[in-house]
Please model this.
Amino acid sequence: MLNEFSLIQRYFANEKAQRADVKFGIGDDGAVTRPLPGHDLVTVTDTMVEGVHFDHSTPARAIGHKIIAVNLSDLAAMGAEPCWVSLALTLPESNPEWLQEFAAGLHEICDYYNCSLIGGDTTRGPLTVTVTAHGQVPEGEAIPRSGAKPGDWIYVSGPLGDAGLALDITQQKISARGPYAQHLIERLHYPGPRVALGQSLRSIASSCIDISDGLVADLQHILEASKAGADIIMEELPLSLAMTETLTQAEAYKKALSAGDDYELCFTVDEHNRGRLETLTAHLKDKPACIGRVTQNKQPLIHFKLHGEPYEVQLEQAGYNHFMSSGSDQGNR
Amino acid sequence: MLNEFSLIQRYFANEKAQRADVKFGIGDDGAVTRPLPGHDLVTVTDTMVEGVHFDHSTPARAIGHKIIAVNLSDLAAMGAEPCWVSLALTLPESNPEWLQEFAAGLHEICDYYNCSLIGGDTTRGPLTVTVTAHGQVPEGEAIPRSGAKPGDWIYVSGPLGDAGLALDITQQKISARGPYAQHLIERLHYPGPRVALGQSLRSIASSCIDISDGLVADLQHILEASKAGADIIMEELPLSLAMTETLTQAEAYKKALSAGDDYELCFTVDEHNRGRLETLTAHLKDKPACIGRVTQNKQPLIHFKLHGEPYEVQLEQAGYNHFMSSGSDQGNR
Model:
């Protein structure tokens, strides 16, 4: 008989060694971990709900991957090194195949980033997955949203809008040619959090956020926290080949500005640190793209330009909002 | 328009000051806290789901209180001082009255135990509440489940079975006289985690667990982890007046052994430390009760005696188990 305890043990107790800083993992009332001296602890939490963030056609492996990825992406945005994760899994029934795939997806990404699953809770109910992830950063070096200053350059870490385009493809709103569709759906289901880049930005970025709700919505969070405005140069927005081959330019810009779920980082760098950033990222395949500049606070907060002319943008929605949305918005968050 | 962000800000950003060790709280990608030097971090997670752990008649305030209480109870069982909590709240709709009551219940208990709400996630979906709580304990002093040794004395921190009896009353399986019913339902809805006692037990208890699934089920977790058995003296089980006035002795024993949700601590103390425990707890209103002794490993793991004679116990269920249970078991966990 599979009880709650053996369920957790069976699927989530990773056969591989835990990190050395995990003193007690799964199997006690709580997990015990040893923080690094001289470091701050960074704690992030994200939930994914069936029918809202994914649907029944989403592979269990992708759900296991993505719930970790979205949390590590938040840690990356703070400049933190990911260390430990706790899982709260609510399931309508104990389905061994589903659990095995889900756990495999979860363990793969945890192992890749040297992050240990230290505990959690398994309950019966509608399918809901919550992860709380813990990272560490040297004392006082966490990157806030609130540090952008007029004159700082605005960067994004990679192509924008791919996950949103993939969602349209899975929902058959848009058709894409085979290889592109494959690439895009991979980006939606198995996002790669910018963990190494986030840590590199600690002493370089003045502010940082991860793009989960769309560039405009998330950049606005930086601007509101920093009491500043921004100018965005449309032709500098990084777009994937899959994007430019599938949509018109205007459609692609709209996706890049408003679609969520890409988990790239958006960050600001002052003039003085720009050279350090260029050096640091010179070797990267996806070099961060400089897409504009922070200005004084203004209304609207963001001005858009294309080839020097004002560009009127139409957003699909001003960032995804769970309580403003009436329908089912799988994949968007 | 109430979006996700303002929802969190409005109800959960506590007007009172945060702990001084919270560097960034709600409102960034992650919370930043500063661990105490020379301490281990203890992390616990518990989920409550509507229709499983509570029903629509449960007051929102009680849900807010209890999701924190059950987590702090796990921290207490580890001997940890509670510090920071993260909340993942999934709601079918934004209901201001519900949120206000829920947040009030949550803040009250957090404030009482000097614990800061540092962040979380709010999503749309079936009502589910997950809290991850963080505590600290001097390096190496967390109390494990696995340290019980033959000869150790077994204690529980207070009356057993009250929450289970209260559940029967709310479900109208049992009727109780007015003042007792009130007292019992209070115990079910607003459990008081044994936070101070847990910390006092650090250098005294050889093992500890909190009683969430019932004494027998939770003591078995200690015995399995410690590879030991136990003898329990039935007449030493602490029972409330409300319990003894409502049920027969046999019914009361059954409740005390098998009902969950009391959040008392069950712990073991070796002969050498027994005097220290007595001194430490002499001033408490609910003095821990010594209910038996750890033995060598045996089958069955636990022997029960009443006035020196073997006592045949009938358990309601061997601890609550989400995946063995087909019906709706509100309140039990």
In short: Chain B touches chain A through 76 residues (CB under 8 Å). The radius of gyration of chain B is 20 Å. Chain B is about 30% helix and 25% strand.
